[in-house]
Amino acid sequence: MFYANYIKKGKKVGHLFDSVAEFVREVDADPIDIIDFKVSGRTYEEKKDSARQLAIEFQYAECGGMYMSEYAEVTHFFRKIGKRFGLSAEFENEGVI
Predict the structure, then answer these.
(1) What is the pLDDT of residues 26-82, one digit of tens each?
(2) Radius of gyration (Cα) for the chain, nearest Å?
(3) pLDDT tens-digit series, residues 7-30
(4) Residue 9: which of 65, 61, 60 has the closest Cα?
(5) Which of 12, 44, 53, 57 has a C-alpha 20 to 30 A away from that of 81?
(6) In terms of DSSP H, where are the helices of 2-93?
(7) Three-class SS of residue 19?
(8) Distance CA 61, CA 37 (A)
(9) pTM score
């Protein structure tokens, strides 16, 4: 799953996509931002920092236009990784979840 925003009818919008093929099939524009929902790192601390950075990047890139079901998917993802890496309180305080 990844988030991409792009220009549609002169307005910047963003949506979630399951694959690059889906993006290419549904969108006739170049992406402005792409956020891949993957946590990376070798150690727990690296993965925790990656999860935190992913949340920050998504908050800066997200520009509206997503469906409620897409917001629910994103919230579910951040709740799950927030619990896994002890970031739930931080994510709640920052409005990620």
Answers:
(1) 999 999 999 999 999 999 999 999 999 999 999 999 988 899 999 999 999 999 999
(2) 14
(3) 998 999 999 999 999 999 999 999
(4) 65
(5) 12
(6) 20-26, 44-61, 68-84, 88-93
(7) coil
(8) 13
(9) 0.90
